[in-house]
Amino acid sequence: MEAILASIKMLIILGVVIYLISLSMKVLNRYTTQTAKGIVVLQKVGVTKNSSIGVVQIAGTYYVMSFSETHNQIMKELTVDEGKLFLQNLQTSTTTPEIKQDFAKLLKETSDRILKKRSKR
Length: 121
What we know:
alpha+beta
């Protein structure tokens, strides 16, 4: 009988401890979360396990960027028209073949430019 009572007490105390941990994490999250109002990642696509390519809006300008563990690099700055077109396409549907083809075309052009730069070195 004492073992059952001890087990019930232990479960109640465990529940209280878990609740307090959860509450403290929520409070700490308010103070540690940094929000950047001028930077918005619009779309991010994984290329490999450790790298990805994305479209980012920074202070009203759109960029195609590569993200990896070691560094981030701006690959191309989009014109205002390209940025607006991308946003329109993103809002309608992100899985339409047109967007995939446009992104694939942009990715191919950018990778070709990078390969040309590397071959010149």
